[in-house]
Design goal:
By secondary structure, the protein is of the alpha+beta class. It is built from 4 helices and 7 strands, in the order βααβββαβαββ.
């Protein structure tokens, strides 16, 4: 009988020091085809400007390799939506199944509640069953399916809208 040794990882704020690895993981998600409508990787400056500084984290293994990241952005500048963010979570293909996404989502939830966020939401392709499952385990519920909400490589795609409402904020 053999056992797999899972290397430990830590969750840290995601910074420019992680930019190259962050964008490489994002590229892998784009190339797999079921993670995002995006078709090109942004520059770090574009990524950095779009994500809220206090609501982004990376998971690092013992040697400093980025295993995955989570980041959130505002859904609207309107004051009524100041406590609502949309997030993305990406895990390097080689690091999947190790609890990375779960740890990242928990860090996001803790920091978002501390910042007064009452809703963390995301649109997930229905084919991305692993993401739907990890979000459900982290307390998200399915709000509904947005049918044919966008075109991806010339094909209409649906997204499942999930949200986690804070029991402590709002």
């Amino acid at each position: 009988m053999t056992t797999d040794t899972v290397r430990p990882f830590s969750v840290v704020p995601l910074t420019a020091d992680h930019s190259e690895q962050t964008l490489a993981i994002y590229r892998a998600g784009i190339e797999e085809g079921d993670a995002t409508f995006e078709t090109a990787v942004p520059t770090w400056a574009e990524f950095d400007a779009a994500k809220l500084p206090g609501l982004r984290f990376g998971a690092l293994d013992a040697d400093g390799t980025l295993l995955g990241w989570v980041a959130a952005s505002r859904v609207s500048e309107r004051p009524a939506y100041e406590g609502v963010v949309e997030h993305s979570v990406y895990v390097h293909p080689d690091a999947r199944g190790r609890g990375v996404a779960t740890a990242l989502l928990h860090a996001l939830i803790e920091s978002s509640e501390a910042a007064g966020v009452w809703t963390v939401q995301s649109g997930i392709f229905p084919e991305n069953t692993a993401s739907l499952a990890v979000h459900a385990r982290a307390g998200s519920r399915v709000v509904g399916t947005r049918e044919r909400v966008g075109r991806h490589h010339g094909v209409w795609r649906d997204t499942v809208l999930v949200e986690r409402r804070s029991p402590r904020v709002g």
